[in-house]
């Protein structure tokens, strides 16, 4: 895959990630705003109720004094929270018109709302706006003199309106500016993680470009070598002729010409190598590897942050659901307690008196709201004339913990009344569990749940219903007291599950997972590109070494020999002169063999190689090879020849000899100090002649056995273990020549135990 394809694919993937990420962020924002809007509405209603109650409690009357009456027709279908809010709006009017108090302070509303929202884990700037409900005109703000945020802006929420005086049309509302995108956590981790993905993509593109340039450089070096090897044949033959004629100066001149061409090729290769080793590419290498840990760390931190935040949100939702279940069960207990204690319709025990305004209000509204009747004991009682909820507001100076909330505060008060009555009505654990599960389902939490009754001081569980087993990651609510001294409490439990939390914010984990997988793929591509680069660099290094060893060194040997013989210093040493001359001739043969092999490969590629197949015997060919390599070998070698005298095959004698010579030469190269080579030939099934060349050398790794017949491929472990040089052309030459003669070649090898090459030729 080239750089353009990788860049195109990476760009499309990044675009897809951006779309999913933006969709996830938008969905998270939308979901968070919906939940926060509901919390703000509930908190503002609670705040307004608390502020008006505080005004009532500051009236100069004794504890338990009834101040006024409030009511709500059942036709309004108000839940408990909205009914209390409706009562508070009536109370605000009564306090102004009946008791001459000023409106509720906007600052007190803002400060109280701030504390409640803090307990609800809602952050942001809070503004209170008093307005004319009819026209929408702003009359006053808190803080005073500060411009209100755009109510349609991002992260800006507005509460429902509460009437300070409905008759005058004066209302108040809260505005919360969460400054959503000012929080680093909302953009930091996604931005940094996406940046790492982009940088990895850019690094891969640069690495692939570098790899492509390196591949072109290697191909150019190979082409230079091919051209040099082809051009070498003519001057080397001339040099060989001059050596036979003892024309040392002419031979040296030819050698210097070939050496200069070789040096020029090597210099170009070294310059390319130096360019790729420059500071720019070293910096790229360091940058690419330094980003790998970041590609793992940042998504992990982001995922942990999302999980932690969502777990806390869900834990808070579980707490709210359990408190609602507790309050609901308390209301049902209170109704039951009134019935079993025969208190329905009687005056509350904690009421100590009433104000003149309450008496006036009672006289005015009794005939409208109540009708007189008797109970089963013939006692006179008053009941609502129409389906209406009627409540008396009284002075109560008991302090309330804002962290508990008004509903829980009132539930505790109701529970205390229940516990003080003669006939006890104990809490129904099964009903609490059922209500808890119902409220969880309404909140979108379709999970298992349970309830425990416990003694916190002794860390003792008295009883439990449902699935109340606590595991790691479970959602466990704050214990709610069943007695005034909190000696017995009730607690809700939702067994935790990592997948439950992840599933609840899948829209954030999906793009996170995509980024992580993309980074992982980038790292794999980066690693593969690095391995290919290392392989190409090693190939070029080995190739350069082979050029020096197999081309430059023979030429230098010839030049040194001609210089010594031309100087005449060895004129009186004929044996040494003969030895030097033979060495120079051997080096010429070596160069001509290399050149001839390259020329033959080129002819095969062009389809120009002419074969001259004849019927030939195999055993004489084996014997010639044994004689040749016993003389040539620089270490002890033992040959085993297994072949019948009458075994023949139709093949080109020169090409077949070159093929077998190459295999035997490799067996000598890639072996230990003592070499054992086995040459065998036999007729196999199907009329095929199988020629086998086996050795006891170092063997070929399994993962390289399919590559060794490729051009310029060499066994890396072989060159490192034995120090053998070469261009990686021999086995490619063998494979092409065998294929050209209609045969096949295969190899069986075990690393460390030798190799066996099998040539199959048609008879």
From TrEMBL:
<keyword id="KW-0597">Phosphoprotein</keyword>
<keyword id="KW-0812">Transmembrane</keyword>
<dbReference type="InterPro" id="IPR003594">
    <property type="entry name" value="HATPase_dom"/>
</dbReference>
<feature type="transmembrane region" description="Helical">
    <location>
        <begin position="505"/>
        <end position="530"/>
    </location>
</feature>
<dbReference type="GO" id="GO:0005886">
    <property type="term" value="C:plasma membrane"/>
</dbReference>
<keyword id="KW-1133">Transmembrane helix</keyword>
<dbReference type="GO" id="GO:0000155">
    <property type="term" value="F:phosphorelay sensor kinase activity"/>
</dbReference>
<dbReference type="InterPro" id="IPR003661">
    <property type="entry name" value="HisK_dim/P_dom"/>
</dbReference>
<keyword id="KW-0808">Transferase</keyword>
<dbReference type="InterPro" id="IPR036097">
    <property type="entry name" value="HisK_dim/P_sf"/>
</dbReference>
<dbReference type="Pfam" id="PF02518">
    <property type="entry name" value="HATPase_c"/>
</dbReference>
<keyword id="KW-0472">Membrane</keyword>
<feature type="transmembrane region" description="Helical">
    <location>
        <begin position="187"/>
        <end position="206"/>
    </location>
</feature>
<keyword id="KW-0418">Kinase</keyword>
<dbReference type="InterPro" id="IPR036890">
    <property type="entry name" value="HATPase_C_sf"/>
</dbReference>
<dbReference type="InterPro" id="IPR005467">
    <property type="entry name" value="His_kinase_dom"/>
</dbReference>
<feature type="transmembrane region" description="Helical">
    <location>
        <begin position="287"/>
        <end position="307"/>
    </location>
</feature>
<feature type="domain" description="Histidine kinase">
    <location>
        <begin position="546"/>
        <end position="763"/>
    </location>
</feature>
<dbReference type="GO" id="GO:0009927">
    <property type="term" value="F:histidine phosphotransfer kinase activity"/>
</dbReference>
<protein>
    <recommendedName>
        <fullName>histidine kinase</fullName>
        <ecNumber>2.7.13.3</ecNumber>
    </recommendedName>
</protein>
<dbReference type="InterPro" id="IPR004358">
    <property type="entry name" value="Sig_transdc_His_kin-like_C"/>
</dbReference>
């Amino acid at each position: 895959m080239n750089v353009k394809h990788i860049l195109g694919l990476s760009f499309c993937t990044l675009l897809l990630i951006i779309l999913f990420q933006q969709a996830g962020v938008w969905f998270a924002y939308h979901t968070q705003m919906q939940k926060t809007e509901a919390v703000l509405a509930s908190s503002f209603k609670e705040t307004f109720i608390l502020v008006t109650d505080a005004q009532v409690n500051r009236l100069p009357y004794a504890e338990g004094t009834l101040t006024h009456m409030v009511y709500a027709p059942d036709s309004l279908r108000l839940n408990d929270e909205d009914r209390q809010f409706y009562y508070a709006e009536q109370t605000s009017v009564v306090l102004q018109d009946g008791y001459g108090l000023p409106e509720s302070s906007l600052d007190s509303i803002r400060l109280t709302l701030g504390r409640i929202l803090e307990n609800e884990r809602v952050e942001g700037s809070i503004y209170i706006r008093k307005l004319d409900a009819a026209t929408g005109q702003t009359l006053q703000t808190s803080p005073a003199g500060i411009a209100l945020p755009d109510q349609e802006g991002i992260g800006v929420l507005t509460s429902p309106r509460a009437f300070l005086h409905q008759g005058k049309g004066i209302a108040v509302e809260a505005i919360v500016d969460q400054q959503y995108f000012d929080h680093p956590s909302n953009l930091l981790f996604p931005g940094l993680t996406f940046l790492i993905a982009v940088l990895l993509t850019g690094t891969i593109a640069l690495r692939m470009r570098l790899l492509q340039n390196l591949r072109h450089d290697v191909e150019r070096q190979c082409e230079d070598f091919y051209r040099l090897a082809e051009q070498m044949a003519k001057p080397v033959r001339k040099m060989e002729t001059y050596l036979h004629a003892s024309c040392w100066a002419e031979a040296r001149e030819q050698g210097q010409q070939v050496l200069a061409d070789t040096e020029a090729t090597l210099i170009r290769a070294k310059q390319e190598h130096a360019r790729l080793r420059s500071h720019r590419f070293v910096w790229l290498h360091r940058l690419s590897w330094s980003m790998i840990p970041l590609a793992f760390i940042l998504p992990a931190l982001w995922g942990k942050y999302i999980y932690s935040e969502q777990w806390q949100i869900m834990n808070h939702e579980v707490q709210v659901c359990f408190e609602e279940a507790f309050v609901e069960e308390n209301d049902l207990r209170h109704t039951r307690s009134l019935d079993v204690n025969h208190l329905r319709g009687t005056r509350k025990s904690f009421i100590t008196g009433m104000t003149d305004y309450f008496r006036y209000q009672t006289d005015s509204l009794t005939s409208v709201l109540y009708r007189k009747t008797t109970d089963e004991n013939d006692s006179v009682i008053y009941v609502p004339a129409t389906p209406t909820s009627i409540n008396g507001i009284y002075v109560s100076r008991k302090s309330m913990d804002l962290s508990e909330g008004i509903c829980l505060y009132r539930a505790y008060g109701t529970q205390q009344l229940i516990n003080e009555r003669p006939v006890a009505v104990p809490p129904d654990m099964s009903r609490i569990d059922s209500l808890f599960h119902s409220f969880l389902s309404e909140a979108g939490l379709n999970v298992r749940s349970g309830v425990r009754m416990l003694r916190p001081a002794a860390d003792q569980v008295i009883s439990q219903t449902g699935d109340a087993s606590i595991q790691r990651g479970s959602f466990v609510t704050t214990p709610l007291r069943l007695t005034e001294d909190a000696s017995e409490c009730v607690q809700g439990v939702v067994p935790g599950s990592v997948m439950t939390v992840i599933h609840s914010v899948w829209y954030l984990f999906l793009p996170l997972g995509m980024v992580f997988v993309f980074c992982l793929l980038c790292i794999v591509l980066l690693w593969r590109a690095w391995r290919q680069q290392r392989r190409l660099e090693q190939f070029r290094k080995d190739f350069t070494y082979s050029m020096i060893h197999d081309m430059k060194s023979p030429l230098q040997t010839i030049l040194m020999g001609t210089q010594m013989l031309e100087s005449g210093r060895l004129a009186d040493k004929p044996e040494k002169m003969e030895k030097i001359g033979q060495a120079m001739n051997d080096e010429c043969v070596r160069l001509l063999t290399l050149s001839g092999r390259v020329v033959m490969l080129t002819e095969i590629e062009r389809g120009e190689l002419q074969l001259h197949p004849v019927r030939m015997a195999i055993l004489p060919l084996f014997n010639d090879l044994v004689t040749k390599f016993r003389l040539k070998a620089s270490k002890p070698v033992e040959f085993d020849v297994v072949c019948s005298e009458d075994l023949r095959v139709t093949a080109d004698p020169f090409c077949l000899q070159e093929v077998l010579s190459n295999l035997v030469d490799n067996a000598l190269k890639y072996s230990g100090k003592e070499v054992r080579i086995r040459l065998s030939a036999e007729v196999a099934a199907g009329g095929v002649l199988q020629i086998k060349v086996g050795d006891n050398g170092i063997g070929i790794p399994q993962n390289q056995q399919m590559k060794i017949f490729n051009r310029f491929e060499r066994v890396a472990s072989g060159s490192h273990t034995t120090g053998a040089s070469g261009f990686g052309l021999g086995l490619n030459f063998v494979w092409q020549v065998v294929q050209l003669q209609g045969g096949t070649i295969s190899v069986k090898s075990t690393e460390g135990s030798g190799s066996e090459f099998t040539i199959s030729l048609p008879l």
